[in-house]
Amino acid sequence: MITALSIKNYALIEKLTIDFSKGFSIITGETGAGKSIILGALGLVLGKRADLTSLKNKEEKCIIEAQFDISKYNLAAFFEANDLDYENETIIRREILPSGKSRAFINDSPVNLQELQDLGLFLIDIHSQQQTRELTDENVQFDIIDAIADNQGIITDYQMLLKNYKADKSKLNTLIKKQSESNKEQEYHTFLLNELLAAQLKSGEQEELETVFEQLNNVEIIKEAIDKSLAIANEEQFGVLSNLKEIKNSIQKIAPFSSEYQELLERITSLAIEFDDISDEMNRHSEKIIFDPELLEQTNQKLQLIYNLQKKHQVLTVDELLEIQTKLENEVVELGNIEEEIALLNNQIQEKGIQLDTLATTIHDNRIEAIPVLSEKMIAILATLGMPNVRFNIEVTQGESYFANGKDELQFLFSANKGTDFGLLKKVASGGEMSRIMLAVKAILAQYSKLPTLIFDEIDTGVSGEIAIKMGEIMKEMSQKMQIFAITHLPQIAAKGDEHFKVSKSIVDEDTQSELKLLTDEERVVEIAQMLSGTIVSDSALNHAKALLN
User: Fold this and answer.
1) Which residues form a coiled coil (predicted)?
2) What's the rounded Cα separation, in Å, for the pair 92 and 426?
């Protein structure tokens, strides 16, 4: 429950600090006095977005701080999950800077707005006239039924499974589309792959083939050159080998006379040995050189095949062709993998569909059991609120589609009087009837909810007299289990509160300011009398106010 609220530099409030107690608190004040400002400040604490219009003085920052007693609401796990310090007396602070930026803190730890909003869901429910109108929304009606059916845990499991189910369906559609597109290209890719495989390409092969081709294509020139070289080398009288031998013999005679001559001898000897090896190597090449037109043709054909493939695939090397071959092989394998993935996904989707159906049936059955309970409680409460002949016709039917909260479709029909047909709430219920129905809903949900605080913002629209007294009594009864605030214009409801706060507006030094004040018993009598008779309070109004309070 909220135990204190501090507001500084917000809207018409310059500075305000107020303490709250548990039970039933009333807030009254003239239209425009600033009741909505209090709700706006609480909204900021609960994570609503802010802007510079919130600042009373644009040169100073706005600070709103609320203190909550959360000792009985099992919120330690939330604080641990969000890495926050848990305190039984938790303080939430919101600051809006003149620059327009805002900051939020929980127990002095900085948090983002989402964390503030998540915590706010456990702390306060602010009921507005807008929320009364939302009662006609099917999702809100489901929420009411599910609260009584205790479906929240099952629906959470269902929603997680549904998210995975939809993700699998999306992935399946993507794979099927990819498979369809791949099938169109598969035949062409398979042709290209087979063409490359048939070529039996090897890395470095092109260079080897080009060397062989050049040799075979120029065999006569090569043979002639080698044989001529051999003749020059081996001619008996003037051949290179013969001359080197003569030179060696000549230098050998003078080698003993000088180390320099000895070095010359060694070099000539080495040269003679090397040239002898060269001559032998030329002989071997000469013997191997054979004109082979068949091998030449085979080599030429393989080279032309490589050149054609390179041109087709717009590459320059065999290695690049091999990369393309590997890529095509992977694509063919991938297509086979897609078929396996599709089969696996279909099985997963089918299994998850069965699990979803099981959860949806449990949700449906729980709703069927909860509907009579809701109808009976609603009828009983509304009978005390001047609607003795009210009837509800609530039906849930299970369909085939998966919705966010199950597979049910809802008919929530209402009849206020005997002899009238059932109709949709938004079409047949008046404003006063809607206010009473919503109060009945809140009173019922209070029995199932662990929410600490509920604020009613003019839920009494369209009612008066004895009905207003009954509404006040119901809120008073609700306050035995949770902290209740009621912003009201009706003295009958105001008189039921444990505490009474008044919002007023005044002009101080030509500056309009709002303030919230806790009324004494005497001030409360006067306030309720004014609500009964207006600004001029008569004795009868005072007596009436005392009677209401007593």
Assistant:
1) 321-355
2) 38
Tokens 């993998």 locate to 337
Instruction: Classify the C-alpha dihedral 211-214-218-221 as positive or negative.
Output: negative
- Are 455 and 127 spatial neighbours (Cβ–Cβ below 8 Å)? yes
Give the C-alpha separation, 37 to 130, whole Å. 17
Q: Looking at this protein, which amino acid is placed at residue 253?
A: K
Let me know: does 50 contact 44? Beta carbons within 8 Å: yes
Considering only CA atoms, give the Rg of the chain.
48
Report the C-alpha gap between 195 and 393 in whole angstroms. Answer: 73
CA 482 to chain centre: 34
Residues carrying CATH 3.40.50.300, the chain:
1-123+451-519
Alpha helices in 200-257 (DSSP H): 205-217, 219-234, 240-254
Strand partners, 414: 392, 423
Q: Which residues pair with 69 in a beta bridge?
A: 89
SS3 (DSSP) at 463: coil
Residues in CB range of 427: below 8 A, 6 or more apart: none
Look-up of token digits 């087979």:
194
Task: Tell me the per-residue pLDDT of 40-94, one tens digit each, with 9 for 90 and over.
Answer: 889 889 988 877 777 878 888 889 999 999 988 888 888 998 889 999 999 999 9
Nearest to 450 by CA among 159, 68, 117, 147: 147
* Long-range CB contacts (within 8 A, 24+) of 398-403: 398/360, 398/361, 398/364, 402/162, 402/165, 402/356, 402/360
Answer whether 42's CB lies under 8 Å from 5's CB.
yes
Helices (H) then strands (E): counts for the chain: 18, 15
CATH of the domain spanning 1-123+451-519: 3.40.50.300
Angle, to 10 degrees, between the axis of helix 465-478 and the axis of helix 431-445?
20
Rounded to whole angstroms, the Cα distance separating 532 from 432 reads: 20
